[in-house]
UniProtKB/TrEMBL annotation:
Catalyzes the reduction of the glycolytic intermediate dihydroxyacetone phosphate (DHAP) to sn-glycerol 3-phosphate (G3P), the key precursor for phospholipid synthesis. Residues 9-164 form the Glycerol-3-phosphate dehydrogenase NAD-dependent N-terminal domain. NADPH binds at residues 16-17, 37, 54, 111, 144, 259, 283, 285. It comes from the Bacteria. Belongs to the NAD-dependent glycerol-3-phosphate dehydrogenase family. Pathway: Membrane lipid metabolism; glycerophospholipid metabolism. Substrate binds at residues 111, 259-260. It catalyses: sn-glycerol 3-phosphate + NAD(+) = dihydroxyacetone phosphate + NADH + H(+); sn-glycerol 3-phosphate + NADP(+) = dihydroxyacetone phosphate + NADPH + H(+). GO terms for biological process: carbohydrate metabolic process; glycerol-3-phosphate biosynthetic process; glycerol-3-phosphate catabolic process; glycerophospholipid biosynthetic process. This is Glycerol-3-phosphate dehydrogenase [NAD(P)+].
Amino acid sequence: MTDIFSKPIAVLGAGSFGTALAILLARNGNQTILWGRDPEQVAEIDKNRLNLKYLPDAPLPDNLQVTADFEAAVIGARDILISTPSHAFSDTLRELKKLDDGERRIIWACKGLEPGTSEFLDTRVEEVFGKDRPKAVLSGPTFAKELAIGSPTAITMAVDDDKLASELGQRLMSDSFRVYMSNDLKGVQFGGAFKNIVAIGAGIADGLGFGSNARTALITRGLAEMMRMGEKIGGSRETFTGMAGLGDLVLTCTDDQSRNRRFGLALGRGASAEQAAREIGQVVEGMRNTKEVKRLADKEQVDMPVCQAIYDILYNQQDPKVAARALLTRAMKVEGD
Ligand SMILES: NC(=O)C1=CN([C@@H]2O[C@H](COP(=O)(O)OP(=O)(O)OC[C@H]3O[C@@H](n4cnc5c(N)ncnc54)[C@H](OP(=O)(O)O)[C@@H]3O)[C@@H](O)[C@H]2O)C=CC1
Ligand SMILES: O=C(CO)COP(=O)(O)O
């Protein structure tokens, strides 16, 4: 077996998920270094051995290093795991490219598309590092807090290189963390991005007081919509019924730990998008994702009524009740279509 554990892995982004992943990796015995962009915040994290701002319930293992020095984090690392918001992904890649040794493998856990172009993040990696650079994306039902405190969790890892698949699997797997392997990078990324939009919808429905029937209908039709678009961009059906599809849809549409769901709840109760985003105070990927997936739907001519309804609420200032009525009163259709 390769001794991958002695080869450092750098986690970029010291928010809730980056911190949780770094804790998991360090706990599993990997040489792990967590990079955050704010030197003061990083110093606080190191002093307290706790990320009070983003993950206050999970102390850092002694062997987890933290730094605000990007070069120091990256330079000795074999693997790079990016866990910034998606809108910071391209900038992070550009910074990485300046220090490139031609060998580092790129992994990410961001759940979104490139803002302004709807490009998938694996395409961005190929544009910056070339097609042959091994890469992987992690996605699935994984609230940071539960992962960090060691509650049983499962995820999908989509990867385009056998050696990386085996070594990253070894790095991540533990008796409380299970990894399912896939080679469907596009499908896994689309599932992760799109579930955020449906979670906003489920939050809106609950904020309006609609109840369990409406929430469940949204999850079910959200899955149909995820599959319709997901297959069009080359994803496979198995991906969308797996962790990165149905798994994450159910998680984030039904549990108030989800920031996207809470954002929707606030909208349904009458807040504006700006007020709701301020209230959450963390990344709400579904806001940008809605614009990007709508752009993709228009380009590919795929019918995405749930995405359209959220788009109208967020970007056309439509009243959520009016958007819900527009969804419900569409012409009758065959369920499988
Ligand atoms: N939290 C979760 O449960 C999960 C999150 N994810 C995904 O992980 C990604 C990160 O989310 P999460 O950690 O939750 O977000 P948080 O809102 O908890 O934290 C965001 C972090 O990113 C940092 N950041 C923001 N902009 C930049 C930038 N331009 N360059 C570098 N760092 C930046 C923030 O720094 P600062 O404090 O200085 O603003 C902060 O540390 C998202 O794509 C999310 O969908 C995936 C699975 C689960
Ligand atoms: O993706 C997540 C869990 O899998 C986290 O969801 P939110 O970003 O909605 O909090």
